Amino acid sequence: MTKKNIQTLLHQILENDNLIKKEKMFQKKLVQHFQDVFATEIQDLEPCTLDEFKIQLTEGLEIPNCSAYKITLGNEEFIETVVKELVAAGLIFPSSPRLLLQWW
Fold first, then answer.
1. Which of 104, 95, 85, 103 is nearest to 43 (CA)?
2. Which of 16, 83, 85, 102 counts the highest number of beta carbons within 10 A?
3. Is 60 inside a domain boundary?
C-alpha cells in the first residue's frame, strides 16, 4: 500500500463519526503498525487459497431457516457492490449453485 493510501485510510478512520475517540486511536495504531497488510484498492489484494473443506452435520439436526442478522438496505447494497467487485477481480467465487446463479 502506498504512503498516500495509508494517509487516506487514516483520514477515513479519524473522520468516522461511528467510532469513539478510543476506537479511532486503536484503529489508527493498528493501521500504522500493520500497514504492509492493509489494502485500499482491490488491485492490492491477492486471491486467498484455502483448502476445500466439508461441514459435517449432526444427524437429526436441521439447519436454521433464518438470517444470521439483519442489515440495513444501505449496508446490503454496499455488501452486494463489494462482493461483485471481488468476484469480478477473481478474488472470491460463489460457493453454492444458488450463489453461482445469482452472481453470474
1. 85
2. 83
3. no
